[in-house]
Design brief:
Layout lengths: L4 E5 L3 H9 L4 E5 L11 E2 L20 E6 L9 E5 H15 L4 E4 L6 H13 L4 E2 L7 H9 L6 E5 L1 H8 L5 H5 L3 E4 L6 H9 L4 E7 L4 E5 L2 E2 L4 E5 L2 E5 L6 E2 L3 H7 E2 L2 E11 L2 E7 L3 E4 L2 E4 H9 L8 E7 L3 E8 L5 H12 L7 E4 L13 H8 L5
Parallel strand pairs: 1-2, 6-7, 6-8, 8-9, 9-10, 22-23
Antiparallel strand pairs: 1-3, 4-5, 5-15, 10-11, 11-12, 13-14, 14-17, 16-17, 17-18, 19-20, 21-22
Helix pairs in contact: 1-3, 2-3, 9-10
Pfam families: AMP-binding, AMP-binding_C
GO molecular function: acid-thiol ligase activity
InterPro entries: AMP-bd_C, AMP-bd_C_sf, AMP-dep_synth/lig_dom, ANL_N_sf, ATP-dep_AMP-bd_enzyme
Length: about 375
């Protein structure tokens, strides 16, 4: 079922989303800079080129309420169509898992699913989210915003690089410990960050999911109520009430990724005794010297080393080996020690060829590493 679509800029998504969840026009949040505002904070109109087409297969019998664009960190951006029922099911299941409705601190862009979820959960809870000021994450602004929260149950959703910067600043520790739960997701959270947070008494909840699952649907390895996960030929598939309707204007991709009520994540992993373990991406395997190397597996080892918790491992061409892993990091480290640590776990083929130190890790607006830019850095290119 198609419905009108309203394009809304960051900072003004909350009232439009509230209306969409109540049956009003669907919402497409966009970065403020990408919209010609013409003196207005939102563009409220029906655009035939953007309206959800009738050939988007429905996973549930509900009209689309939200269209959210994926980050495009490793591939082309896609527009994911989500129903009100999926978003509300996600909010309800998350509340049940983390301690009940409360007040949220918004530190993530509203045009990505993690930011939208903060707004949706605030709507369901009947509370007003507090926005961190500024367009980039800043520890001081985080502390000011956290101090403005008034509810007895306080929540925040972060990505690992934000958590790392807060843990590196002792002034933020008390603020973090005051939250009922600190959700961290968007990418794998290094074990060292988890251990540091727990040692400070911070209730950290690691989340896993995608825009196609209304955001995080697996908390600390356990699926939320109603969500089912299975491994099919090593790939994680997810089903449940939080699934998207499909992709806007891409029925072929929808049919490929959504099969019989299941979403094919493209992530590798397994499910043992109800615990989901994500091991990497199907497309992150390179052939180095004739041997398969998982960049995700190499990255997990690298991130376990001191000072490299936010490092990124990407591929680079090599005249002799074909392709090799390259580490992009914000801090100097001994390449020999990094290579030895990786070899001990992943074998000689997994050893990073070099370590590139950057002043600041390239990030997407969502806070995730910009892996395409990181790959250009590994190749010695500039954007």
């Amino acid at each position: 079922m198609s419905r009108p679509l309203r394009i809304v800029a960051d900072g003004n998504v909350l009232p439009a989303l509230r209306e969409a969840l109540a049956g009003g026009p669907a919402v497409l949040p966009r970065p403020r800079a990408s919209i010609d505002l013409g003196g207005s904070a939102a563009i409220d109109h029906v655009d035939a080129a953007l309206a959800p087409p009738s050939d988007v297969p429905a996973m549930v019998d509900d009209p689309v309420a939200l269209v959210v664009e994926t980050s495009g960190s490793t591939g082309d951006s896609k527009r994911v169509a989500l129903s009100a029922r999926a978003l509300l099911a996600s909010a309800s299941a998350a509340d049940a898992r983390i301690g009940g409705p409360g007040q949220w601190l918004l530190c993530l862009p509203e045009h990505y699913i993690a930011g939208v979820n903060v707004l949706a959960r605030s709507i369901v809870a009947g509370t007003e989210p507090v926005r961190m000021e500024g367009t980039h994450f800043d520890v001081d602004r985080f502390m000011v915003a956290a101090a403005a929260l008034e509810h007895e149950r306080r929540y925040v959703s972060l990505v690992p690089v934000q958590l790392a910067r807060l843990l590196d600043d002792e002034r933020a520790h008390e603020s973090l410990a005051a939250f009922e739960a600190v959700l961290v997701g968007g990418q794998a959270t290094p074990a060292r960050l988890v251990d540091r947070a727990h040692a400070l008494g911070i209730r950290l909840v690691r989340t896993y999911g995608a825009s196609e699952t209304s955001g995080g649907c697996i908390y600390d390895g356990r699926p939320l109520d109603g969500v089912d996960v299975r491994a099919v030929d090593g790939e994680l598939w997810i089903s449940g009430p939080t699934l998207a309707e499909g992709y806007l204007d891409d029925s072929a991709l929808t049919a490929d990724r959504f099969i019989g009520g299941w979403y094919r994540t493209g992530d590798t992993g397994d499910v043992v005794d109800g615990i989901v373990r994500v091991t990497g991406r199907l497309d992150d395997v390179i052939i180095s010297g004739g041997l398969k190397v998982s960049l995700g597996a190499v990255e997990r080892v690298v991130r376990s080393l001191p000072g490299l918790e936010t490092a990124v491992v990407v591929r680079a061409a090599h005249a002799e080996w074909g392709e090799v892993p390259v580490v992009i990091a914000e801090r100097e480290s001994s390449l020999a020690e990094v290579r030895a640590a990786v070899e001990a776990v992943e074998g000689p083929a997994g050893r990073p060829h070099r370590l590139v130190v950057v002043e600041r890790m390239p990030l997407l607006p969502s806070g995730k590493p910009d892996r395409r830019e990181a790959q250009r850095l590994a190749a010695g290119e500039s954007s």
